[in-house]
Amino acid sequence: MKFVHIADMHFDIPFTSLNTREGLGEKRRLEQRNVFKKVINYIKDNSIEYFFIAGDLYEHEYVKKSTIEFIINCFHEIPNTKVFITPGNHDPYIKGSYYETYNFGDNVCIFNKSQIEKYEDKNVNIYGLAFTEFYMEESPLLDVYPENNTKVNILISHCDLNGGKDADGFSYNPILESKLNALEFDYIAIGHIHKSNIETAKKAYYPGSPISLGFDELGKHGMIVGEINKDSFDIEFVPLDSREFKVVEIDVTNFASREDLVENLLDINLERKNLYKFVLTGYRNFEIDVRQLLKAVNIENVLKIKDCTKISYDVEELAKQNNLKGIFVREAIKAYNSGQCTEEELQKAIEIGLDVMK
Ligand SMILES: [Mn+2]
Fold it and tell me: How far is ligand 1, taken at its centre, from the CA of residue 193, in Å?
């Protein structure tokens, strides 16, 4: 049997991190559609029998009806492919959800219970379950045993491999990888983590998000395609996203002025199609205002500049001085010690003050 496996499309996510450049969020949402069309075309061109979507296909909170209709039209284009969807924590199968209210087509099976259900096909049995809330405390994946070993057995689920609770105390179908590996499935199609684990996985595979959603999702993004039979196993990662998010570090220690820095930033060799974040490191000799800097470095695909530099003044040494600078630094430290400002604010205050006294 031949299949395509994707997860974490997150249709209509707001892309707030791209807002620093006007119109880019919308552009990226169109690119989500393009990437999905690429998947559909791959399925057509290669006569793929099964299409697995392991959750977070869309953003329940933000997705537009027109996007749902776009997705359904895509499914209509592949009538000979059986599509299986296991809703995740961003697109749970809940009352009033588009999964419940729209007809996705005869070739689409949407799992709608938080317990494992089985779909029997000629040579393949497909097991799956849905998030029916925005979280899932206990994993139902522990005791699933495929009943028929002459068929190819597939399990699909949105789950958090080796996961625990998030900062707000929620969990998302957490399951130990070793437990999943012990289940007698031929392939376990999972979603939730946006980076593919195809290099290290033994049985439970994350394809990652088909399109990168931001600077915490570096590297290539795409889908897993495969052909599995009872006696053969062949899978491959196919990149889909035409852009990559990239982080470039710049050490500012040797730059004497803001102008120096801007000049150097403008000289960095960038690929037009990629999206960049600059991270400034080292010791700064002048005040850095990242917003101003982003304006000065007016390059369309540089979206963010992050300042991780440290002040180059020797504050302790300055505080000992018997002059205006010394008095100023001692006062600033006093304010910090009495809790009137954060360490970062202290550094900034000293920097600005000393800049004026130069
Ligand atoms: Mn998820």
Answer: 7
pTM of the model: 0.85
Task: Determine the distance separating the centroid of ligand 1 and the alpha carbon of 131, expressed in angstroms.
Answer: 10
Q: pLDDT confidence of 21, banded at 50, 70, 90?
A: confident
Cα 129 to ligand 1 centroid, rounded to whole Å:
14
CA of 153 relative to ligand 1 center, distance in Å = 24
Domain positions in the chain are: 2-239, 245-356
Fold for domain 2-239?
A: Purple Acid Phosphatase; chain A, domain 2 (3.60.21)
CA of 5 to the centre of ligand 1 (A): 15
Task: Please give the distance, rounded to the nearest whole angstrom, from the Cα atom of residue 56 to the centre of ligand 1.
Answer: 6
Q: Which of 4-8, 163-167, 354-358 has the lowest mean pLDDT?
A: 354-358
Closest of 331, 330, 310, 325 to residue 355, by C-alpha: 325
Reply yes or no on whether the pLDDT at 350 is more than 90. no
Q: What is the pLDDT of residues 119-154, one digit of tens each?
A: 999 999 999 999 999 999 999 998 788 887 899 999
Task: Tell me, in angstroms, the distance from the centre of ligand 1 to residue 111's CA.
Answer: 16
Give the tens place of pLDDT for each residue, 203-250: 999 999 999 998 989 999 999 999 999 999 999 999 999 899 999 999
On whether the CB atoms of residues 161 and 180 are closer than 8 A, the answer is yes
How many A from CA of 304 to the centre of ligand 1?
25
Question: Could you say which DSSP state residue 340 is in?
Answer: S
Check: CB of residue 319 under 8 Å from CB of residue 331.
no
Å from CA of 205 to ligand 1 middle: 14
User: What is the enclosing helix (H) or strand (E) of 175?
Assistant: strand 174-175
Instruction: Give the sign of the dihedral formed by CA 174, CA 175, CA 176, CA 181.
Output: negative
| CA dihedral sign of residues 93, 91, 63, 224 | negative
What is the rounded CA–CA span in Å between residue 218 and residue 116?
A: 33
Beta-strand ranges (E) seen in 66-134 are 82-85, 108-110, 117-120, 124-128
Residues 193, 182: contact at Cβ < 8 Å? no
